[in-house]
Amino acid sequence: MTDTTLLQAGDRTVPPTADMVALKTGLFIDGTYGPAVSGLCFEVIDPANRQPFAQVARGGAADIDRAVAAARRAFDDGPWPRMTGAERGAVLRRMGDLIAARRDELARIEVRDNGKPLPEANWDIDDTAGVFHFYADLAEGLDGAEQPIPLAMPSFTAKAVREPIGVAGAIIPWNFPMLMAAWKVAPALAAGCTMVLKPSELTPLTALELGAIAAQAGLPAGVLNIVSGFGPEAGQPLTEHPGVDKLAFTGSVPTGARIMATAARDIKAVSLELGGKSPLVVFADTPLDQAVEWIMFGIFWNQGEVCSATSRVLVEQSIYEPLMARLADEARKITIGNGMTDGVLLGPLVSAEQQQKVLAAIERGKTEARLVCGGGVPEGLEDGCFVQPTIFADMAEDAWIWREELFGPVVCVKPFATEAEAIRLANDSRFGLAAAVMSADAARCDRVAAAFRAGIVWINCSQPTFTEAPWGGYKQSGIGRELGRWGLDNYLETKQITRRTATEPWGWYLK
Ligand code: NAI
Ligand code: MG
What we know:
Layout: E1 3-4, E2 27-29, E3 32-34, E4 41-46, E5 51-57, H1 61-76, H2 85-101, H3 103-114, H4 118-141, E6 147-149, E7 156-164, E8 167-171, H5 177-191, E9 194-198, H6 205-217, E10 224-226, H7 231-240, E11 246-250, H8 253-264, E12 269-273, E13 279-282, H9 288-300, E14 312-316, H10 317-333, H11 352-366, E15 370-373, E16 390-393, H12 400-403, E17 410-416, H13 419-427, E18 431-432, E19 434-438, H14 442-451, E20 456-459, E21 474-475, E22 478-479, H15 484-489, E23 492-500
Parallel strand pairs: 8-9, 8-11, 9-10, 11-12, 13-14, 13-19, 14-17, 16-17, 19-20
Antiparallel strand pairs: 1-4, 2-3, 4-5, 6-7, 7-23, 12-22, 15-16, 18-21
Helix pairs in contact: 1-7, 2-4, 2-5, 2-6, 3-4, 4-5, 9-10
The protein binds 1,4-dihydronicotinamide adenine dinucleotide and magnesium ion.
């Protein structure tokens, strides 16, 4: 973390370079960009070369106060919660259109900020636009969605209506910077909430850009406020703020636990999407090519920095040896490099700290498992935060490396003998975010899918994620579901309105 007292944040203070447009670097509060109250900034670093390339405002408690006050006014007195769903949907649809129109530029910012390969950043931005379009439709669907409630008692009628929960505070991670913003911003706005978004200090740029996109799309000032900054300085005051009605968080289990504990003080609603150590179970009747492709994609896409990464692979005994040989072969061939370079499949990890964390985990893994391939920094790429695709085998069930989330390109592979053993090993985890099964036997896939204790189950693939389908975890992987119509529920209250239709006395007092 680098401090600078030089006041540089504001509207487009970073000049465009050959491969990048000008960037928004100020806090977006009440419809305008500006510096932090402290005047401080922090550096944004490209993990492919460890070089800073932008400075953004370093928000703190005073900025969170301003942002929550703006969101509070916009909710309590502003038009947004009072518009029809169709009117809100029109704004969300324009936001989606504007994101889609700027896809190439936004994807490039994402590569510089996060490190991921450009084709994957393109998917992220396509998905981000898609999420806004999806919730535009759902916002429309809220109009007239009140439900009559049949009552047993005569001379009463009742109905249930859904209303926005209020001011939402959203805290997001760095692995899919703009998409994670969309997963929270789009449903919250569709519901009629106003919000304060705090992006990760490691990847603030595309989220900050969302302010300009929202303003251009006609979102009223104060509805969406974006405060870049560090967890303890900006995230913690947001979770503590009495003006916030709901908290939505994606990130690590310890930070999620702390947010939940803080939220308990004044009973804020909380949704949490936390980590995982998700299993992929491969039966012997799976074509080897397909098994290899999905195992690799399941752990090496986005550098393994994916909450749902299938980082534990269970392989049926009879194909274990040939599959391991093939997998190691293919993993060694993966092209590693700067995410901007054509043909690169694995970029740098997001930061030097994350790289050190994963390398230390690999060292610990070497003491309790056999290193099959990878295990270090790729030669010639020492200037960036790179880690080789790494495979471990022969670990015990209670090995640390088998049980803990590493959030890097590291996979543990274990053989199994029977379906029952595979299910037991798969479910033996404190996490329950995702699980995958591959087999040519559809009935077996259905049985295993039903037995998994996880919120997301893939059959004959791993990782494809759809905006329409619910996303979230069992056990310590979180609380609540994002995406689909479930994602909207996070930002809605339910109100019953009961009407007495008779006029004669009730009889408790007046007879
Ligand atoms: P983190 O959970 O600490 O950070 C995520 C977000 O929470 C960031 O915006 C951060 O500024 C904020 N935050 C941190 N401390 C806070 C606090 N006290 N109050 C409020 N907000 C706070 O995760 P971090 O440090 O970026 O990564 C650490 C590990 O977390 C990774 O190695 C990985 O294992 C896991 N992780 C899981 C993710 C997921 O998608 N489930 C995403 C990112 C990280
Ligand atoms: Mg960065």
